[in-house]
Amino acid sequence: MGAMDGTVGLIAGVANDRSFAWFIAKSIIAAGGTCLFTHLPGEKMERRCRKAITGLGIDDPWLMPMDVSDDASMDEAFDRIGADHPKLDWLVHSIAFADKDWLQEGKVTATPREVFTTAMDISAWTYMGMANRARPLMTDGGAMVAMSYYGAEKAVPGYNVMGVAKAALEATTRYLAMELGEDNIRVNTISGGPIRTMSSMAVGGFSAILDWVEQKAPLKRNITGEDVGDAAAFLLSDAASGVTGQVLHVDCGYSAIGL
Ligand code: NAD
Q1: Ligand 1 binding pocket mutation candidate from 159, 166, 197 (most atoms within 8 A of CB)
Q2: What is the pTM of this model?
Q3: Where do the domains of the chain lie, and which CATH numbers do they carry?
Q4: Which residues are registered as beta bridge partners of 65?
Q5: What is the pLDDT of residues 150-183, one digit of tens each?
């Protein structure tokens, strides 16, 4: 018996087999859950996502394009989920975007309005947008998880506007939890340690961050994708039935120390 046996949920954010979303899917599948996937529209994105999912042992995945910057695209994806599945038990929001030109040291103060609003929209508001569309499908309660980073709490050089968006994402987690609790829907976020992915390589000085965390974190290592995958599966399962509105650090303890 797996902790997620018989449950069905949506995973948004598998770009390839290094994505946090991919590791989360891996852990959920190991716990017995069934994953539906969405990817950023485009032939190349679909091909990469499909290839990564095949690597999870799923040959014929439920897979739809969904651009979270577009309401119609979100509606279409959730309408299809509702049509194809009687209910949704959980969802994973593992999506972020900010213009990489502004994710460099010394590039906070002059951040253009449009760069700021896009980062906030894609990286924070969309947790609300997905939650709102998932709520009517979670007829038997549910659980949600999004991905954040330490740069939401402290100013991390190079993380810049994304740190501001992650602070909004973490606040969004608490406000969604407050409202969705009456439907027995739990809302949490994982603050993951740094790991090399397509998105993180856009952050200026990222290799130095990895080296620093490895030296200073209590566990003296960087996290693995599995660390985050297993924590997400826990938060989405009944094992975490009393946990909502929380930001769980999965960072080898780095955020617990004063360096
Ligand atoms: P990733 O590049 O593998 O995943 C980011 C995903 O966001 C991609 O699948 C991309 O297609 C998707 N995306 C971007 N804009 C989109 C849009 N408009 N519509 C739909 N999808 C869109 O990188 P990742 O590191 O796995 O990132 C996943 C999450 O984890 C992000 O929220 C990121 O901020 C967070 N995170 C990453 C790290 C790290 O060090 N890699 C650390 C903590 C948190």
Answers
A1: 197
A2: 0.98
A3: 8-250 (3.40.50.720)
A4: 39
A5: 999 999 999 999 999 999 999 999 999 999 999 9
